[in-house]
Amino acid sequence: MRENLSQQTAQRLYARIVAEKRLRPGDKLPNEVELSAQLGVSRATLREAIRTLAARGVLEVRRGRGTFVSARVEEIEDFGFGALEGVRGQLRDLFELRAIFEPQAAALACARADDRELADILDRGRAVEDCIRAGRDRTKADWEFHAAIVRATHNEFMTRLLPLIGQAVGTAVASGGHGARLAQDTLRDHALLMEFLERRDGAGAQHAMAIHMRHAMDEMDLQ
Amino acid sequence: MRENLSQQTAQRLYARIVAEKRLRPGDKLPNEVELSAQLGVSRATLREAIRTLAARGVLEVRRGRGTFVSARVEEIEDFGFGALEGVRGQLRDLFELRAIFEPQAAALACARADDRELADILDRGRAVEDCIRAGRDRTKADWEFHAAIVRATHNEFMTRLLPLIGQAVGTAVASGGHGARLAQDTLRDHALLMEFLERRDGAGAQHAMAIHMRHAMDEMDLQ
DNA sequence: ACGCAATAGTTATCAGACAACTTTTGCATT
DNA sequence: AATGCAAAAGTTGTCTGATAACTATTGCGT
User: Fold this and answer.
1) How far is B133 from chain A (nearest CA, A)?
2) Is the same domain home to B135 and B59?
């Protein structure tokens, strides 16, 4: 183990809530003295663990009353913490968000991209095509294509969503996407999309991107 | 002040990073003994504050080396901590994202909300109406209405966007939204929206929400 | 039945000590 | 002078035990 005791403790507590279900939403935790004894750590360490979970919205601390499991733990679910299980559900949610978000981003990009940005988008699109035709891995190229489109919206908050989307793409690949079928669809979808982008036809690009998202979700048996 | 000292301390530290810029991304904080003396709190309290910020990705603690401001603070900041100084540009970006996102969320909510969730949404909608008619501040009620809708999508990542939306609402109010005109629009928009929600008419709810977003943006001279 | 003070249960904060890890320093050996 | 290694300095990690402050309940007197 290389992690802090306090972080380990946070994970153990978290496991009691989401995995073991010994603690359910709304439940009250034992008081700090007792709980720290149960877990075999000092009260100070336990409190640091509690702070970590409280910052994530998993626990709610009420002075004089006790510490409680947040009523909406399930919806807060965060990465890097508990288990990669449920990836499938996360993946569906993530693609659902993309399916809403990226077609509109494509439309906005048509309206707002300057010439250099548009050229950049098209370059990256061609790079993806090359990868597919050459049979190389296209994960990175594909991601950069989508990222370039979103950046061209000139919307700060959309750009902030990029890392989230990057994770979606990464997970999708890891869980066995990228069949031959998807590759062919992607080739067609991108051609369509780039045609509209080049003409700065926002409505067209929006629909082309929507189709692209649908294909991706179908191929992965989402929705 | 009713907040914990440790939470207050977290906010003071956070302010040093994003507002005062006394600490920039990558910087090393003073060691814990010195910093706790500077801030006038015990080391234990400071450590709890650090845990809170570390959980949010603002700080990175490296044993034996020190505590550092995360290199990517700017990108991470979504949570409702400080820094409302997003000015007009951010506000436009934020509402643009909402305008894309919330209508679709409303449509999804129609399809997926269980009866209790739907009742909850309608309750909160009525609470907003009451606030407007009574001339009370409706900020909180309004946010809870929108939050209830988004939660009913049962989509984890949409729920994650909630804090962002909360910030949008907060900033909008702070920068002088909430004119009499907007109040009247909101009253009508919500009535329309709730009518469709109650009937679980997804397409209708989607358009009603889109109209609501447009009104809000118009009133604030965005777009 | 009511009001209110005492009490029990709980989190909040402090102080000081020692352990463990990382980087720098300085010295001995080659 | 260069190298390697041990000591030291700087830092976070953890523990202990005490006291303060807040909340809800209990029980008593009226």
Assistant:
1) 31
2) no
